[in-house]
Amino acid sequence: MIPRPKPERFRLRRTMMFMNAQKPGLIKDAYIYGCDSIMLDLEDAVAENQKDAARFSLYHALKTIDYGDTEVIVRINGLDTPHWQEDIRVCVAGGADGIRIAKCESAQDVKTVDAAVTEAEKEFGVEVGRTLLMAALESPKGIMNAYEICAASDRMFGVAISGGDFRKCMQTKPQPDGVDMLVARGQMLIAARAAGVQCFDTVFTNLDDMAGYEAELRQNKAMGFDGKSLINPKQIRLVHELFAPTEKEILQAEKIVRAYREQSAAGVGVFTVDGKMIDIAFIPGAERTLKLARACGLWEGDLV
Amino acid sequence: MIIQKPAVAGTLESSDALVSIEPGDGKIELTLTSSVMNQYGRQIRETVLETLDRLSVTDAKVSVVDKGALDCTLKARVECAVFRSCDASEKDIPWGGVIR
User: Fold this and answer.
1) A298 vs A181: CA distance, rounded Å
2) Is the dihedral of CA A19, A21, A25, A30 positive or negative?
3) Which of B28-52 are b and which e, b meaning 16 or more Cβ less than 10 Å from the residue's Cβ?
4) Do B90 and A94 touch (CB under 8 A)?
5) Rg of the Cα trace of chain A?
6) Candidate from A25, A55, A56 with C-beta closest to B14
7) Strand A71-76 vs strand A37-41: parallel, antiparallel, or unpaired?
8) In angstroms, rounded to a whole number, what is the distance separating the alpha carbons of residues A123 and A89?
9) Which percentage of chain A shows pLDDT scores above 70?
């Protein structure tokens, strides 16, 4: 029995890799790849007649395997299936860090899951509120209701878009410039930031198109995503490289935070650093850069 | 638990095991084949028998074809097969009770 520490609602989640909970060969050593989170899947990866077997397998994996610092999230079956309630029971009993709600369309969906999780926490003697939630938005309705979904529960740490289903609903296909999902990604990001939760992009499914993958990651970073959903370990490294702040960004952030502290102590509100105007509005961004740099192992200062 | 009908759980993929169970003749009859029989045969047999004992299964014919499964996988497959044989594998599983 491996006791897991209480999950942190906000932590580094650059990479979240999907794993079929029914495949013992995959889940037994999922932590070695170094992704921030693994997503053990009870939903689409598991055939309809193996849902029961996947839960037994998941329970023992959660109880036996030491995943270390890798966060363990479980994707449960949709609320329109006969499976989700037992899925929640096994997640809570096994001590998963969080649950991903598939096909989430409304705040009520989150509240329904939240209530079932609370009930399971009481049933299995788990601290109420321990189990985190995230929602996957897979339909136009989910995107339209994104803010209410993000703000529906104190357990919510983030929201992700699921490209396959969403594009199907929108009658489009992946485009090299990402225009097919630009508005949806943007709306979800605004909703997540407004609600104060994290935001994750969909999977990139063509494993051979590394150039296309890199272009999508660069766009993700430029748009402000916290992380990416992945389907293969070979996709991990590039995300960690691209999402990490550059050396120049770190130095700049350090300079800004230091200068701000000195100037504000001297009663100055706006000033310049390397020829650029800086005021209080720049400080949260600079501090976030430093925290991210520290989390990525690139910075060891004590400014933040 | 009383084994009511034949049931199967697992696969023949690497790191997995295929467990079949059916009503017995008054005792546990275990047939085991394993890709790692020489190294781990005894331990696999013990894990399977312990799991059946925990589920109070005392009367069954059990066949295990092991492909190098970890203990936690063996337990999961045996438990699933037993619960399936009682039509009880889909809900209200006693997680943390007899399943542990």
Assistant:
1) 32
2) positive
3) eeeebebeeeeebeeebbebbeebb
4) no
5) 20
6) A25
7) parallel
8) 9
9) 100
Interface pTM (ipTM) of the complex?
0.97
- Tokens at B43, concatenated: 């331990």
Using an 8 Å CB-CB cutoff, list chain B residues near A28.
15, 70, 72-73
A271 is in which domain, residue-wise? 247-295
Q: Which whole number is the average pLDDT over A36-55?
A: 95
Q: Are B74 and B22 in contact (CB under 8 A)?
A: no
Class of domain B7-85: alpha beta
pLDDT band (50, 70, 90) for residue B12: very high
Minimal Cβ distance to A90: which of B69, B79, B95: B95
Give pLDDT, residue A24. 79
CA nearest neighbour of B78 among B40, B39, B35, B28: B28
Runs of H (alpha helix) within B23-96: 37-54, 71-85
Same domain for A46 and A102: yes
Q: Same structural domain for residues A216 and A154?
A: yes
pLDDT of residue A115: 98
Q: A262 with A147, same domain?
A: no
Separation of alpha carbons A144 and A304, rounded Å: 36
What distance in Å separates the CA atoms of residue A169 and residue A197, rounded to the nearest whole number?
25
Write out chain A residues lying below 8 Å of B75, CB-based: 56, 60
CA distance A236 to A32: 12
Residues A215 and A259 in one domain: no
